[in-house]
Amino acid sequence: MSHSPTPPGPEVGDLVGVADGYERLWTPHRIAYIKGERPTPQAGDGCPFCMAPTKSDEEGLIVHRGEHCYVVMNLFPYNAGHVLVCPYRHVSLYVDLTDEETVEFTALTKAGLHALRSSSQPAGFNIGMNQGEAAGAGVAAHLHQHIVPRWSGDTNFLPIIAQTKAIPMLLEDVRRQLVEHWPA
Length: 184
Fold this sequence. Notes:
The chain is of the alpha+beta class. It has one domain (26-181): HIT-like (HIT family, subunit A). Helices cover 29% and strands 14% of the residues. It has helices spanning 12-15, 31-34, 48-51, 57-60, 99-120, 158-162, 171-181, and strands at residues 62-65, 69-73, 83-87, 124-128, 145-150. It has a five-stranded antiparallel sheet with strand order 1-2-3-5-4. Helix 5 (99-120) crosses helix 7 (171-181). The radius of gyration is 21 Å and the shape is elongated.
């Protein structure tokens, strides 16, 4: 039985730019999270929440700096605009905050809500903190509160079947919008 050779297919270069009917979701920043390569939660150089304020606002993705606390973009956002309110001081529990830190922590949470509402008009918010690894804290050693803007229909099948979340904006672009809309 003789077989005729398979006719050659198109060269890869011939397919560049040709629509194939698929939408692509590019989220390369999430590979560190998927691989479990999270920053070491130690005070000083190893803690991402101690390191962020030592950088420029742009490099550290800082949205706002207060006297005792600051607001930073989440590197692994659930939605565009997902920010974290953090004390500068390396403490792990809410009850460890001083009275001054607690007041500013709350004020920055409210300001973050105002900036998000003004910049992107979400339909709602999730606000919360996971204290301790057992509670789901990714960086349990440094307290941080999540503010996640929510829109009707922002949850779809991707997180459930593909363990993937589509984020439609770059962190740097969202940070710039929030800075522009931060209350005076």
